[in-house]
Amino acid sequence: MALTSKITDTTQIITVHSDRIDAAMAIQFKEDMRNVADGGAPRVVLDLTGVEFIDSSGLGAIVASMKQLGSDRRLDLAGLHPFVEKVFRLTRMDTVFNLYPTLADALAPPAE
Amino acid sequence: MGNGNCLDLSFTATEAEASVGIAQLSKGLEAQGLPPHKASDVKIALAEAINNVVEHAYAGVTPAKVQVHCRLHQNWLDILISDTGTPLPGFRLPDGVPAPLGSALDELPEGGFGWFLIHELTSDIRYEHRNGCNRLSLRFDFPNPSAGPKKAT
């Protein structure tokens, strides 16, 4: 599982370079997220643009990643493929995370 | 389509082989004509059912094979998943109750969604344990394609 990170102002963007986050890679994903996000900005945006498939283990790994950040940092999700969005909606995790259709949407200044 | 198109796949019940197998089955079913609007549901439920076999049926024992038999009919898809691992608790299907989200960050569930998703996305589920074999049947119904889509999406 390859993750890359870029920090701008108060936001850290972490991009997932895999087309799936599933049971086979969930533990590795959680570990990599812990390492990459360590000491970063208060807001973390996870760019899922390249992810076409996620299962409940992958979803659990994203939830675990948010918990790892602690209560003073936040994890937002961007670039959700319709399939990935559906898994979040079915499990009601769409009520827990801020979901943005694209990375640009996630980085746009808040609307008035 | 007569008795339907068949697609069979068998693989060792490890996370790595399951990951490849699930992707292969999803691709194969779409190639055989599974309606695109149903493909997501099938992919999610199939992945959760196979992951359950890998994580629970073969937990603590040497993983043997998972066998997946798919039969695609014009208006429905049957999938039979068989394994020789540990039976489901009480020899019955778990309820599809989703894990509660809780009210605080550290209460958020990191699992417990598998059976909920399977129940939610299938039209029918059956389970039996016979001759040392777990057999989980999933059925997905979809409207007649000739009737046209019910609503635009």
* CATH topology annotation of chain A: Transcription Regulator spoIIAA
How do the strands line up in the largest sheet of chain B?
A: 1-2-3-5-4
* Strand order, largest beta sheet of chain A: 1-2-4-6-7
H/E series of chain A, N to C? EEEHEEHEHEH
Task: Report the biggest beta sheet of chain B as strand number plus sense, adding barrel if it closes.
Answer: 5 strands, antiparallel
CATH architecture title of chain A: 2-Layer Sandwich
Secondary-structure element order of chain B, N to C: EHHEEHEE
CATH topology label of chain B: Heat Shock Protein 90
State the shape of chain A: globular
What is the percent of helical residues of chain B?
A: 25-40%
Q: Based on helices, strands and strand pairing, what is the structural class of chain A?
A: alpha/beta
CATH superfamily of chain A: STAS domain
Number of helices of chain A: 4
Labels describing this entry:
heterodimer, A: 112 residues, alpha/beta, Transcription Regulator spoIIAA, 5-stranded mixed sheet, two-stranded parallel sheet, 4 helices, 7 strands, 27% strand, B: 153 residues, alpha+beta, Heat Shock Protein 90, 5-stranded antiparallel sheet, Serine-protein kinase RsbW (chain B), Anti-sigma-factor_SerPK (chain B), HATPase_C_sf (chain B)
Question: Would you give an account of this structure?
Answer:
- The complex is a heterodimer of chains A (112) and B (153).
- Chain A is of the alpha/beta class.
- Chain A has one domain: STAS domain (Transcription Regulator spoIIAA, 2-Layer Sandwich).
- Chain A has helices at residues 26-37, 56-69, 82-90, 103-107, and strands at 2-8, 11-17, 20-21, 43-47, 53-54, 74-78, 99-100.
- Chain A has a five-stranded mixed sheet with strand order 1-2-4-6-7. Chain A has a two-stranded parallel ribbon with strand order 3-5.
- In chain A, helix 1 (26-37) runs parallel beside helix 2 (56-69).
- The longest helix of chain A has 14 residues, at 56-69.
- Chain A starts with a strand and ends in a 5-residue tail after the last helix.
- By secondary structure, chain B is an alpha+beta fold.
- Chain B has a single domain, classed as Histidine kinase-like ATPase, C-terminal domain (Heat Shock Protein 90, 2-Layer Sandwich), CATH 3.30.565.
- Helix content of chain B is 31%, strand content 26%.
- Chain B contains three helices and five strands.
- Chain B has helices spanning 15-31, 36-57, 114-121, and strands at 5-12, 65-72, 76-83, 124-130, 133-141.
- Chain B has a five-stranded antiparallel sheet, with helices on one face.
- In chain B, strand 2 (65-72) and strand 3 (76-83) form a beta hairpin.
- The radius of gyration of chain B is 16 Å and the shape is globular.
- The mean pLDDT of chain B is 92.
- Classes of the chains: A alpha/beta (112), B alpha+beta (153).
